[in-house]
Amino acid sequence: MSTTAQPPAPTAASPTADKPVVRPGDKIFAGLSTASGVMILVTLVGVAAFLLWQAWPALVADPSEVRGGNGLLWYIGPLVYGTLVAALIALIIAFPLSIGIALFISHYAPRKLAAALGYVIDLLAAVPSVVFGLWGVSVIGPMLMGIQAWSIDNLQFLPFIGGPASPKSMLVTGAVLAIMILPIMTAVNREVFLQTPRLHEEASLALGATRWEMIRQAVLPFGRSGIISGAMLGLGRALGETMAVAIILSISARYTPVVTSPANPGTIAADIALQFPEASHGAHLATLVASGLVLFFVTLIVNMAARYIVSRRAAFSGAN
Amino acid sequence: MTTSTPARTEPTSSRNAQVETSGIKPGRISQALHAGILIGSVLLALGLLYVFGTVSLFPLLMLGAAIYLVVIYVVGRAIEGRRHGLDRFVTGLVTTFFLMALIPLLSVIWTVVSKGLARFDAEFFTWSMRGVLGEGGGAYHAIMGTLIITGITTLLSVPIGIFAAIYLVEYGQKGRLAKALTFFVDVMTGIPSIVAGLFAVALFTLFLGPGARMGIIGSVALMVLMIPVVVRSTEEMLRLVPNELREASYALGVPKWLTISKVVLPTAAAGIGTGVTLAIARVIGETAPLLVTVGTTTNLNVNPFDGRMQTLPVFAYYSYATPGIPREAFTERMWAAVLTLMLIVMTLNIIARLISKFFAPKTGR
């Protein structure tokens, strides 16, 4: 009936009993599991609640007391703008790349190699962000100097090109961010491309389509929502990325469309990392936490939207 | 996985069929011609770069790929027709994209190794920075801090994460709480690390007042980042455990909790181990949350409940952001710290793969 080394459960289930036997071990285990699950949800709510609590002084403070002395919006506005610009550059670069890489792994590479190649791309995700930052500032920055200088000489008429060229420009930051969000976007795309119904692909090929035509007719339409949610997950990562931006970006402006010069707006996450060690307390600290709250809600919404889209079609997570 | 076979083999056959049926005779690019175009493009790129001065890998790849793509499209279009020319072009493009993604990885590894070796010596691993102003010194205090903080984080996160996953798979079924939990765990994997740091700061302000800096605060911040990853990977592994195993156990009268702890968890142990190792690798390199919660120090501090500690990523960051004189000493220590960090992370990744390779249950389907 009962197994060996059974904890106190002498009442063996008798066929006459209506209620199933509830053992203490079961109760404890179920309780622990449920408590862990609830705790995670409470933590998420707690993040919002505690940030709001700490940010409150800045929300109600006199504008002159807030960091910068001109009110909360004046301080956070350029940071939100800078965050969006950096993330957008990253997304523009990473979006086509991630689709191409995912297609290569799912439909072009030899099948035996596919898993290994996917693993190589995942390794890119394992590199800590501080390493990407230091690498970006010493390798990518100097490497993009030539292109930036050339653009400034020849494409000055574009509103987002302007001098002097800098290895610590918004463009360099965006390029490094693009590399950092590539793995998660590739992983999502790869997953949905592999889920394309085989019959769709074979039908397309049977009608004489080339491989690219088959991909355009069968794979890409099927994977569209996955591609979109992958891009949004990447966007979420780029919005919240801290150290790479803090290390690379040269911050000395508020709103500017120029992305090739050393005068850039900061980003929320990088600003917190840079200013926090010096911010003592009071309204200055609260201002930083308030900007963190904004970042939290923006990334929360982006991530929720992405997960909602992807959860409607298949179980997938970027957690591993 | 399974879908790629037809994609690779059938264009050829369908093209042959087309050639046979249609009267006109579109040719095919032979393998020799294809190889010739590829080699020619690379050589041309090499020559152009040589003429203009700098020969390095990335421009070579970009230029070579660009020349190859143009040539293969034009030649393919001329010999095989418009559609097959385009197909050849896309194949080349997609392959180029993949190679482009490999370059950052190789470049990061090369940069870190070549610059990090200068100070990758015994002194680096046995000295702290206490009293060191210029050259010398090491990151012993930072390595200890990273190990202690990550260790505490792991000890606290793994049980919570595994139990939450057990709830999702074994108890929650399809209830509302389980659904919400699955969704928000996924969402939480995307929380910016700096926000997790701010949360931990705010939480401990409640107990200790403002301005506290401690190892344990950093651990709490890292927990927010680590738990969702553990839950997600454990959940996936638990779902892979065949239901027949559970049913067999129940049929023998084994209570549910014993079934889970003696049957389900051991079966999934390898996968869970892999997931936990990858989760550790992910949080061990986190910088931003530690910057705001643990701070920085030059002394060895192994007590996570008492004051600031040094950690490897923060050590590297401050060596860059606030170097002293001579600057080279700080830069060299920074790269050595980064090399150490990368070695730890890559080792953890390899261990994770080895666990899943060697300890996975043999009965897996």
Short structural summary:
The complex is a heterodimer of chains A (320) and B (365). Chain A is mainly α and 320 residues long.
Characteristic terms for this protein:
heterodimer, A: 320 residues, mainly alpha, MetI-like fold, 11 helices, flat, disordered C terminus, B: 365 residues, 14 helices
* CATH A-level architecture of the largest domain in chain B: Orthogonal Bundle
How many structural domains of chain B? 2
Ends distance of chain A: 41 Å
The topology string of helices and strands of chain A comes to HHHHHHHHHHH
* Strand residues, percent of chain B: under 5%
Major sheet characteristics of chain B? none
Task: Give an account of the 3D structure.
The complex is a heterodimer of chains A (about 325) and B (about 375). With about 325 residues, chain A is an all-alpha fold. Chain A has a single domain (about 25-310), classed as MetI-like fold (Orthogonal Bundle), CATH 1.10.3720.10. Chain A contains 11 helices and no strands. In chain A, α3 runs antiparallel to α5. Chain B has about 375 residues and is mainly α. Chain B has 2 domains: about 25-120, no CATH class; about 125-360, MetI-like (MetI-like fold, Orthogonal Bundle). Chain B is about 75% helix and about 0% strand. In chain B, α6 packs across α13 (about 310-320). The radius of gyration of chain B is 28 Å and the shape is flat. The two termini of chain B are about 15 Å apart. Residues about 1-25 of chain B have low confidence and may be disordered. The chains are: A mainly alpha (about 325), B mainly alpha (about 375). Chains A and B meet through α1, α2, α3, α4 and α5 of A and α1, α4, α6, α7 and α8 of B.
